[in-house]
Design goal:
homodecamer; alpha+beta; four-stranded antiparallel sheet; two-stranded antiparallel sheet; 2 helices; globular; NADPH-dependent 7-cyano-7-deazaguanine reductase (chains A, B, C, D, E, F, G, H, I, J); oxidoreductase (chains A, B, C, D, E, F, G, H, I, J); GTP-CH-I_C/QueF (chains A, B, C, D, E, F, G, H, I, J)
């Protein structure tokens, strides 16, 4: 199996770089339409779009490391609500943003289409 | 007849799991475009889309159990207004959400298209 | 001529059923895109979409009876303004709703397209 | 009841005028999106769009008379297939066209949407 | 359980009426977007749109009876391929059409969306 | 009446200019979405779009004169079929084109929408 | 790791059922918009939509087993061209179809968007 | 007047470069949506889109020179038909293409919208 | 290599002209859909659309100089967040605008699509 | 400057892999919407979308190497016609395809939008 594939979330892969303009409030948005994890109840894969929006303070998340962190959920089993909050928590801990919103928009399973939205203000 | 099909609503099928992040307010939406029940007056099937949106407190509804609960209305006869309120009631009782909204959007019958919307705040 | 066709409006056809959840405020919408009556001046048929939205108190209007009531205008001659207000009046008298809105959106006649909207608050 | 409304089809209302350019082949199309008749089985009204296309020989159908003829089906009960063919027959008899096509596109009834298409070549 | 719901297909419900214009070839199309049956493997409901197109000979299928026949599959378990062919067979036997096409377009199950198309020429 | 308004079609207003490239076949299209004339039966105005397409031989129609010619139908009463053929005839006589097509697409009158298409080949 | 996830393609998971109507030619299409495998060069996941269309002979592919077979590529590394042909080959061997077409439409990688299409006739 | 503005078409501005692949047939298209000239009758500006498509032989037209040539019509008065043919002629003389098509699509003037299309084959 | 290509940002290329109407507040927007720079981590090019909106005080940015300034990032390596803020800073320093907003909308990299938005008020 | 950026086209970067299914004809398409090179006349950057479609024989082009090859034109100056043919030539030489088509669709320059299309058959 490829070295890029993991069986558990790898927050240790996340890297930051120093916010190049900490004196100014500005908004960063990263949209990831190819997120996938596994349903803990059925073992079948889930697919969704993660939209992360935040106002940085001292650190910004490095984009490639964010991609690798998202990829590390590929074979991980967890409910939608847990996955979304776990990622939000990790990014809040890492970035200490002024504001952060994470919305996970999941493709239909069993005819149901779900959206989980977490909002955080420092 | 299949074991998955019922002739009466089965709220006992609903399962919850512990809200993994009870300390945080976040929003959960489940859209079910394949809901069907039976018109109590004509005996003909009705079809609609149920959109559930809520802010959890201690429990979240498990998605597959929600699907099975919705499926249990398949051969049940009730007016649109009763079905929508009955489901809202059951979910409010089960989840004790901070807020909950349930909108049922029914396909046309006799040339009329109906929408029922229930809103609840704790 | 069919027993379903009438030459005058038939409010006596309207039926109600007991609001199954009177303790809760919720919104009911019925959209009827196939309403037709007759222009009293030219004798030509008019066509329109009736959108009824209301908050019930003790009674809800039964859907099939609403359809039959609407159908009873088929050969009735009245101006747009009169038809829309007459139907709103009848439903307000019958349902005693907290709020009710009726919008009639008429297809073009002589190149003019008309909309009549009636709003009622208890 | 208005003098414009009838309880049976009135082909006698159809009028023609002399084709002003019989020496030339040309195509005439009339689209009528507000046709309505009655279902002979349920007594409920049916709604549809009639699209007539023909190549005239010596006569053309006068537009207002076509509208009145269509309106005369308003309270007439007949199956989709019969209505469409009956109108096509009447127009073929009246106009003796080189070619004629009549398509009736009906709005949904009981969840089914139907289209009947008749084609005639002299 | 309502008298309109069945646990097996009911071809005996199908009715025909005499083709009012047997001397002429014309095309009849009925689109049914609310077909539902049951997956024989999982017991879960399937949903789809059936599009029937045919050229009649001596008989036409009556629309309400077609609706009831389609409804009778509501609690019946069968693969997509079998359901589509079974309905096509029944209608071919009943109508002896010059041509008939039946396309079943199923909503996604497990992330897969399927279409089955049967074509028949006399 | 203003000098710009006419009570009869004025083909004498049409002007041509010498085809600057008679040695070559090329195609000219003029679309006029603001044509208006009068219904000879009701006296009400009709509106339509005229699309003229032709291959010139020795003469081309001058655009402003074409506009004035079209404007001269403003208070003229004639059936759709007659207007369309009359204009086609006038332009064929004037231009002697290799090919010419004129399509008149009329806005709805009494709920009917009509299209007349004339095609000519030298 | 879930029992549903594999590190190599599992054609042994494919199941067939007997074609219920072998005497008739008909067309089966399955669209899978959530296919994912791994790039053998970078180790990063690839995502695509597989569209399978075939005319069955004696066997049809069972839908759930097709889903599981597709899922078994989740952690498998192979070029687009190889994956698409390998799946086509397996299905041709299994189903011996009269005709089969498989199109894989891949989401962009490094700014490039690719489509591979395989066509087979018996 | 600015050195960039001309009062007459300047074919002398056109430059070519040697076709880099004369051994192969390939197609070149240049779309110029900002062409403008002057109506010789009213003095008002005309605007249009010129679409040039050709198969080169030994020379290709240099893009910037084509732009300047087009710009040189800015204050030139000529009918649509003349402008389009004049440009086509100039390019045919210059490029000696295997095939060339020039379509001029003019914005509405006095309510009329015109298209002139010239096709040339060597 | 062309004199127009640079390996570092060239703010010295930016030119301004005097605001011709400093007494009035008005809004200026420049949209540049062809911005490109280089990812400092992977060395691969990035592409995006820069939307600049500002209210001028005494100076406006000259459009061609803005284009050249943007082009000077072509071979420059920097994170999205740094590029966007650096350009905003330079323009704020140069123009001293009442308000300025710069939004950079980047095309997908590794399946992630990013937007950086900087807002400044004097 | 990054090691990924070049000042001349680098066909030596192209890699192939053995066609995994040489016995079968199938179609491969790669769409690259982020191609950029430099205008040899003005020194300004050009942007375009390259669409490559081919039927492989013994070799397929490896996707990442194709991306790097395309990137190597980033600072290279050449006319549209030359760039498109040069890339087509290189790929024809490398892949010896049964058929190959390359279309380059360039964004507007000086108000002109160009498309170059090369087609090759073995």
């Amino acid at each position: 199996m490829s070295e890029f594939l993991y069986d558990r979330p790898r927050p240790d892969l996340l890297e930051t770089f120093e916010n190049p303009y900490p004196a100014r409030d500005y908004e960063i948005t990263h949209v990831a339409p190819e997120f996938t994890s596994v349903c803990p109840k059925t073992g079948h894969p889930d697919f969704g779009t993660l939209t992360l929006r935040y106002l940085p303070t001292e650190q910004c998340v490095e984009l490639k490391s964010l991609k690798l962190y998202y990829q590390s959920f590929r074979n991980h089993g967890a409910f939608y609500e847990a996955v979304t909050n776990q990622i939000a928590d990790e990014l809040i801990r890492l970035l200490k943003p002024k504001e952060l919103e994470l919305e996970a928009n999941w493709t239909p399973r069993g005819g149901l289409h779900s959206v989980i939205r977490v909002t955080h203000t420092a």
